[in-house]
Design goal:
Belongs to the glycosyl hydrolase 88 family. The chain contains twelve helices and eleven strands. With about 400 residues, the chain is mainly alpha-helical. It has a single domain, classed as Glycosyltransferase, CATH 1.50.10. The strands form five sheets. The chain has a three-stranded antiparallel sheet with strand order 7-8-9, with no helix packed on it. The longest helix has about 40 residues.
């Protein structure tokens, strides 16, 4: 009897320690977020410039002419959602509403990132009907880039490939899957099915043309806008045309998981599972769950078009931004499939890593970004091993999803 009581006591202690550890991941992350973001708000008191990253050791901002501005107010909304402090709500509103003119943006696909991460969270947390109207107009702007012949939304305007020869007239990138959430939202609040039709068609076309047999993806697919024919399949920010760019894989996992949530279509769920399993089963995934910037960087059989120097790095850089996106997606995907525990476990492993001193910046360092060690584009020699605002955004989103699950 005494032995049984002792075992029960030990189990209770272990369970208690596990719960505290799980709470610590969330509380540690948001405590650091409050400290860092408070300092950023003091450094840039007005929303005329938006924090993006670090360049040459200094804070690099953008002035509403980029694709990343929506992530910063999104971070503020997530902190408010966690602590319900009205000061954070006021800051989030100010930094969100300054982006309203972007609702008319039509020259690239990233209006989804810009407006849904800011105004989407604002509407969800406040119910302000004006925010809904802004989002619907933003969705209309995104729809102007859709072409029925190609069956997808044009991501970028004309540009040339890395080889300087191939011309991309209608390039579509895997990142574009993330912007479909804005369109699904517009159909839900207006009852107009055109937005969801475009989103579904884009997701179908992407599933058909953007993936390899192993469910890794090409960053860029270039179409003939008159016939819809695929002209090129290539990379832009990954290592080579046949490699698996980590953040691109994370966009795919997240995008198809979200598309399944909005449609309950099995083919979208199958894509989410396949792309997630590619990630989890990859032999080159580090033990801590934070991927190298490209799963195949420097490996035999992968030849880049850009000027790659193997001596460039002593170690292949990790990408915390890809890890954060994937963690958030895994936590949602786990709820949609039998045996989803493996996705929850993968997300927890990532969040424990990102919440450790290896990736979580010390207070007052890192130009007051939350996470360290992300990668923008190594081929462009841009944003290598630096913080990135979207890494912080998806990290906080993943922490909120994780926290919600722990409370159930």
């Amino acid at each position: 009897m005494k032995m049984n009581k002792l075992w029960i006591l030990c189990l209770l202690v272990l369970c208690s320690c596990g719960t505290k550890n799980e709470e610590n991941i969330v509380s540690r992350g948001f405590e650091r977020a409050e400290q860092q973001l408070s300092a950023q708000l003091k450094a840039i008191p007005e929303p005329t410039e938006y924090p993006r990253t670090i360049k040459d050791g200094k804070l690099k901002t953008t002035k509403k002419n980029d694709w990343t501005e929506g992530f910063y107010p999104g971070c503020l909304w997530y902190v408010y959602e966690y602590n319900r402090n009205e000061d954070w709500k006021e800051a989030a509103i100010k930094w969100t509403e300054a982006l309203e003119p972007l609702k008319k943006l039509t020259n690239h696909h990233d209006i989804g990132f810009l407006m849904y991460c800011s105004f989407g969270n604002a509407y969800r947390l406040t119910g302000n009907e004006n925010y809904k109207d802004i989002l619907v107009e933003s969705a209309r702007s995104l729809c102007t880039r859709f072409n029925e012949k190609t069956g997808c939304i044009e991501s970028w305007n004309y540009r040339k490939a890395w080889n300087g020869i191939d011309e991309w007239f209608y390039p579509v990138i895997i990142d574009n899957m993330m912007n479909l959430e804005l369109l699904y939202f517009a159909t839900k609040v207006t009852g107009d099915s055109v937005y969801a039709h475009i989103a579904n068609t884009h997701a179908e076309t992407t599933a058909k043309n953007q993936f390899r047999a192993d469910y890794s993806n090409y960053h860029v697919v270039n179409y003939d806008e008159d016939t819809g024919k695929v002209l090129h399949k290539a990379t832009c920010q990954g290592f080579s045309d046949n490699s698996a760019w980590a953040r691109g894989q994370a966009w795919a996992i997240y995008g198809y998981t979200m598309a399944y949530r909005e449609t309950k279509r099995k083919d979208f769920l199958d894509m989410a599972v396949h792309t997630a399993d590619f990630w989890l089963n990859h032999s080159n995934l580090p033990e801590d769950g934070v991927p190298y910037w490209d799963f195949n960087a420097g490996q035999e059989g992968y030849v880049p078009d850009w000027n790659y120097d193997p001596q460039m790095f002593k170690e292949v850089p990790r990408d915390a931004s890809a890890a954060a996106v994937a963690a958030s997606a895994f936590l949602e995907l786990a709820d949609y499939v039998a045996g989803g525990e493996k996705y929850d476990q993968a997300a927890e492993r990532i969040l424990k890593s990102l919440s450790s001193p290896a990736y979580l910046a010390e207070t007052g360092t890192n130009c007051n970004f939350i996470l360290m060690h992300s990668v923008g584009s190594i081929p462009h020699e841009s944003e290598i091993d630096v913080p990135l605002v979207y890494a912080d955004y998806y990290y906080l989103e993943a922490l909120l999803r994780y926290n919600s699950k722990q409370k159930k």
